[in-house]
Amino acid sequence: MQLAQKIIIADDHPLFRAALKQAVTQAVPGVETVEADTLEAVQEAVERHDDADLVLLDIHMPGANGFSGLVFLRGQNPGMPVVVVSGSEEVQVMKRAIEYGASGFIPKSAPLEVISEAITAVLQGEEWLPQEIAESLEEVSAEDQEFAEALVSLTPQQFRVLNMLTEGLLNKQIAYELNVSEATIKAHVTAILRKLGVHSRTQAVIAAQRLGVEPPKTELG
Question: SS3 for 36?
């Protein structure tokens, strides 16, 4: 007997999560859905549901820094497909999502029927992009690809610390947010610099920002 498929829906807007759930149910009758509204919640969901068939990921949700969340999820769970669902509809953003390991990119403006079609295609092992984009993919720079590969070596906690560094938080503030000692944060920062092959917090932040994406100028970013 075939088990029901399971899909993780990751978006910080409840209304859009509901719309995605509708599209998912339309595409996969009997599907089990798991919802998450922050990148940390997505990571926890993926750990709890490591048998999930697909993650639908908004790259602009809290805790995410552009493509860093996508890269990290793909590195930690290489067998679990991730489809980016975003209000950022620039061609280059879509191309980069695929280069960083996404199995597809669905614009938030797409009608439910198209979203359902994309989900079905990816679950069947295909890659999905709007047709006009799929015809002209380009590779990301070698430098960005190298950084993306290094990013995967971070632990989940180190990844959270790096994201907080990009937000300009000091060690003391990060320690407070994560409820750990400042010495622990210093140790994490040291490990982050070593793994990313950089020599200062500033260099680490600049490297992380290369994976950034300007948030869309829409309500449902």
Answer: strand
d(CA 29, CA 7): 12
Residue 214: pLDDT above 80?
Answer: no
| % helix, strand, coil for the chain, step of 5 | 50, 10, 40
Number of folded domains that form the chain: 2
Please give the residue that has the higher pLDDT: either 207 or 173.
173
Q: Is the pLDDT of residue 1 over 70?
A: no
Sign of CA dihedral 51, 49, 101, 132: positive
Domain that holds residue 51: 6-134
Question: For residue 74, is it left (φ>0), alpha (ψ between -120 and 50) or beta?
Answer: alpha
Q: Are 77 and 50 in contact (CB under 8 A)?
A: yes
Q: Which amino acid is at 95?
A: K
Same domain, 76 and 95: yes
Residue 208 token pair? 């992380």
